[in-house]
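Suppose a colleague, Dr. K., hands you the sequence of a protein chain of 294 amino acids and asks what its three-dimensional shape might be. Before reaching for any lab equipment, you can write down a predicted structure in token form. Begin with the sequence itself:
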Amino acid sequence: NIIRPLLLFAKAEIEEYAKNNKVPFKHDPTNLDIVHPRNFLRHEVIPNWQDRYPGFHTAVQHLTTNMHEVSEIIDYTLDTVSKKVVEKAENGNIIIKLDAFTDQPKAFKAHLVKYLLRSDGLLWRKHNWEDINHLIAHGKTGSIVNLGHYEILKNRESLIIQKKSPSCQTHFDIHEGENIQTDNFSFKWQTAQKYNPNSNQNVEIVDAEALAQNVELRPWEEGDYFQPLGMQGHKKVSDFLTDIKMDRFSKRSQFVLADRDEVFWVCGRRISDKVKVTPKTTQFAELSFHHIVG
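The predicted structure, expressed as tokens, is then:
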């Protein structure tokens, strides 16, 4: 944010104060060049208005004060509505639920996007407003608009706002006892003494002997397939991600634990039926995968 404490004072007032208090100051010669629109207004237009309308400067000050009050009202309204239609995902993304709006004007949704990103000081241009409004009104699921350091995704009846960051595309060879920490995620494989059911999809206990000897942790690829827990047949990972309605941003960062032939774990989502714990299991492996929110 830019603080301009002297904005409400006229130039003549500032010069008089500086003179009376012997405050040295300099004139920037570029401020006299009327080639620049702001200087043309300052030197050619505004003086004529002030000559014709002596109260012009005071009127502008009042207008500025009124606009600040209107801005505060708008921000209050945006903040109130945001508590009903905005939520924060576990990965740090901002989700705007478009279908949760009621009778707000069309432009309100785009202004809410700007309000949510206000701390980054983004300078909104005309094309930014046009792109966001078009995404909201006509964008198809999967459409993305770039805005400064952010990407905004249309995902069914939601907008997902994600800060741009380099994705991890590295492949990791995985063995028992492995502990991997990156800027994007953490992974751990440790021995478990027994099977303890839990509802946390980021932590799975599997049959250690059912895992292949040579497994790797990597981003999923087109053509990957696995046998989802509880299913008889195999399924493409791409179809599985579509079935659970995973958004395009999340697909980018989805990792799998796999060997050369098939996937054993769509990390944080579903294990393969082939590595599930059964009454015959004697060795247990606890696998954990967590995205890191930056």
